[in-house]
Predict the structure.
Amino acid sequence: MAQVALQNITMKFDSVIALQDLSLEIEDGEFFVILGPAGAGKTTILKVIAGLLKPTRGRVYINGLDVTNVPANLRNIAMTFEDYALYPTFTVYQNLQNPFGALKNRLPKEEVDQKIHQIVTMLQIEHLLHRKVDQLSGGQKQRVSLARSMVRQPRLFLFDEPLSHVDAKIRHSMRAELHRLASVLATTTIYVTHDYVEALSLGDRIMVIDKGVIQQIGTPSEIYHNPKNEFVAKIVGQPTINLFTFQVMKDKERLILQDPTNPQFSFSPKGQAGEILAKNLGETIRVGIRPQDIRYSFTPTNQDYFVSKVDLFELWGRRGMVLIMIGDNPIRILTQSDEVIPAGQEIWLNISEAPLYLINLAGAKLE
Amino acid sequence: MEQIEIKQRKNWLSIIGVNLALIVIFAFFLFPILWMVGMSFKTIDDILAWPPKFFFTPTLENYKAIIFSQMEVRGVGSIQIDFMASFLNTLIISAGAVLVSVILGVPAAYALSRFKFKARENIGFMFLSFRFGPELLVIIPIYFIFQRIGLIDTYPGLIWVYQLITMPMVIWIMRSYIEDVPVDFEDACVVDGYPRWKAVFRVLTPIIRPGIAASALLAFIYAWNNFIFALVLGSSNTSTITLSAMKFISAEALRYGIMSAGIVISFLPILVFSIFAQRYFVRGLSMGAIKR
């Protein structure tokens, strides 16, 4: 049970700034996801919270207590590492037993055995107990490393990309399992990932981070539907959100978005964006449209649609991705069926009814 | 069919060719050693015979002389050279030097690879530079210092000065070895609840054991073969085998046979160690042997 607060954390490695003036608060029992690309500083945050790294500046609080100078072994936090860090010279059993060898965690042997038994049954790794670590597959190592962090009752779980090295099938079931475990144990969990699906499906709240700077903190729905900037809009969603540069124009009381480099590419938006667009009349802005929000047809329809040709099609199981080039602008569309669409097929598109993500040229959301 | 046969014959020929070449190369490099081993089983007359004798009746006289430290000198009687005592001396000094180097050098290597501190690279390089300097460069001042504090011709004195040979080796091999082990193992153990020093003993030490074995063995070989420190800073109490082997060259005779037997005995431990620890050795020296 723990509340975590970071206050103005800055972390420098020599001259490289890994984290810059980062402040955040995590509630007791919350499943908090940190989402960001490689090198964003995600692991550094975990290590600062765990006490493995001392921040260059700033304070770390757990349950309101300043623990910045408390060594990692006294913080009662469990952490899994991206490469598992299972002790290679130990068996699985010895790995799980290791936390109880520490003075402050000492328990009678029967109790230790019982706890280990409980956790291996839960994670279905009983049969692996007497194997050496190098005889395990990636998915098994994954489970053992989770088991090692869960075998004692820490006040905080830190998971560093726990599912990134397991294959897609296991990942799916492990994700569900993690979700269940987190709600059963009701322990505050901080979960680092670069996979937006994991973030959206697991997190109570998500923090998006890039280059050591917080981009946005919010619920999955806020992150997805209301991204604060271009970076956040781009990091969630597959295929990636379509982003265009448009000039806001007016044509007989109608607002028009016009590609300044390609006069053919323009449309009149019909959504709620009108007010914001009106404020930015004459400005050049960035417009984001999610690939599933674009309507399409293979037969000519009314005037809101414009015609183009399919450049590339990829079948993604029950859906597909269509790529269309309009001038230099690629447009990605997520299809609604598993119908195969041949390249060169004529396609009519309607983007005027799609919800628009409006962003200024500096990358921040337009309000 | 014919083509296959030709191919096979070619293969066969090339295998023979390669092996012949290898035998020639080995014979060339190993000949001095083989000849010495041969000499250790020959009488002095056989050794000095011309043309050299490749076939002779082997004798164990030389070994007897070495082991029971008795040697007949024709017409003069017998003199004593306690070769086995110097064998023991060498063992004590070399093993002691390696032990001290491992106990102090592995933690030093750990510090150099894991901690960031001022002048880290300079300190690391300083250790390495001990191997650059010729031993003669430092031996005179060391001699005077040792004379003053009474360390001449003592085990501790020689073990101390042998650190110049063994310590850099242990530190540099272990440093790169430890650098190749992800710090995550120790971090995980600290998170498990152990203080850092305990985590190192618990988790890191078993992983780097092959490296310790390899560096210790290498350091041992260099210590074993050292001549100049033992010559200047040691004397009768600590005479090492490299010195004792020299004593067979004396004014009244060159005892080739006994000298050969002595040398064979002195390189046997190294040979046995190397064969025994070969696997460790290869693994220890091919750094980065630890896969995550």
